[in-house]
Design goal:
Length: 343
């Protein structure tokens, strides 16, 4: 159902009506802060006009609305009121939590601090409660935040939780360690909030799959979490195998007993990039955005693929075509029946 789309926009086709009630479509996206993108990032190959809010705001809204997500998790939001107004008119309600010391505030032409936001479709979902967190590193507050929300499907009464975050940026071993600590705090926060409910945990983790935080999340004792895009890739590999009528299912099993093997298999199956940009110091093309989920309670049904290099163009992103340097991740999940409530 997810389409790799043409060069104009990336769209995931509408969910099947007949299987709608247990399905949740999540859109995860670092939309690029207007203030940082225009005045701080140094996207040397992006035309200035493409970076104006006047140009970008329509593309951002278009991409969100075209995909018809039930839940939208955004990072680097510094135009929350605009999004709330526009998405509000399309039946979404939203929550915003700014970074305590947003770098936007140090730039003269800012539009307020940037932060994370969660929007949800009001006609399908009921907000039961939410919490916010300034992530701690060695018990000291950092500049990174998270939002967790408990949502209920109006049709079935079933509940699930969504949590989103934007972890510390930049390279280096110390920063990777810091991100790992933020991840540990994030897990503690979301475990306390969600308890045993089905969970979608997504965001810009600013960490490639080989960084310690990835294994921290997938190997954590409090939750069994899995990565949506990696699992979808596994499913596609299985499908191809089935088509070849070779029963090598064993080789592709994701529910392997050895946690280290499970993590290294997942790392291999992450997409090649979720962000692709050129700054003065060179080109960056890597995977740092993720959608994690609890596979015992949710089934990943489809993921929106990313445009290929030729579609993106040699100047990469942002561009007149792509308003952010990150691509949106769109995932279709099915909420599974709780085995505890059966029989
Ligand atoms: P982060 O390191 O997490 O990064 C902030 C933003 O910069 C992110 O949105 C990130 O985007 C983007 N970014 C990443 N790499 C680059 C790059 N190479 N060039 C330009 N931008 C990049 O910052 P913190 O939130 O921890 O904030 C930094 C701190 O610095 C704040 O606490 C603030 O006090 C301070 N500050 C002070 C300033 C001053 O003038 N005194 C100015 C700015 C900040 P992505 O996540 O997409 O990679
Ligand atoms: Ca950024």
């Amino acid at each position: 159902r997810c389409l790799k789309l043409n060069s104009v926009s990336r769209v995931c086709s509408a969910p099947d009506e007949n299987e709608g009630t247990q399905n949740i479509r999540l859109l995860q996206w670092n939309i690029l802060s207007q203030t940082l993108g225009q005045h701080n990032d140094g996207f040397v190959r992006c035309p200035e006009e493409a970076l104006t809010w006047q140009h970008r705001k329509y593309l951002i809204v278009q991409e969100i609305l075209q995909n018809q997500p039930d839940v939208v998790c955004l990072q680097e939001v510094d135009h929350f009121k605009f999004l709330q107004t526009v998405l509000g008119s399309q039946n979404y309600a939203g929550i915003f939590f700014p970074k305590p010391d947003s770098p936007c505030l140090y730039i003269e032409q800012n539009n307020g601090p940037d932060g994370c936001a969660i929007f949800y479709k009001r006609d399908k979902l009921q907000l039961l409660g939410y919490d916010t967190r300034i992530l701690e590193v060695w018990r000291v507050q950092s500049n990174q935040v998270a939002i967790a929300a408990r949502l209920q499907l109006k049709s079935s009464g079933k509940e699930f939780c969504v949590c989103t975050t934007h972890l510390k940026a930049r390279h280096g071993a110390l920063l990777a360690k810091l991100r790992n600590e933020q991840g540990r705090d994030l897990i503690r926060f979301v475990k306390q909030f969600a308890g045993g409910s089905p969970l979608l945990l997504c965001g810009d983790f600013n960490a490639e799959p080989v960084e310690p935080i990835y294994a921290t999340i997938l190997g954590c004792d409090l939750f069994k979490l899995s990565s949506a895009y990696a699992d979808m890739q596994l499913e596609r590999e299985r499908e191809r195998e089935r088509e070849r009528e070779q029963d090598r299912e064993q080789q592709f099993t994701s529910s392997c007993e050895d946690p280290n093997e499970f993590i290294s298999q997942s790392i291999k199956r992450e997409p090649p990039y979720t962000t692709w940009k050129i700054r003065e110091d060179g080109e960056e093309c890597h995977t740092i955005d993720y959608v994690f989920y609890t596979p015992q309670q949710l089934k990943i049904k489809n993921c929106l693929e990313f445009p290929a290099g030729e579609q993106i163009g040699k100047n990469r992103t942002p561009s007149f075509q792509y308003p952010s340097d990150h691509f949106s991740l769109v995932c279709d999940f099915e909420l599974l029946d709780d085995p505890r409530s059966e029989g």
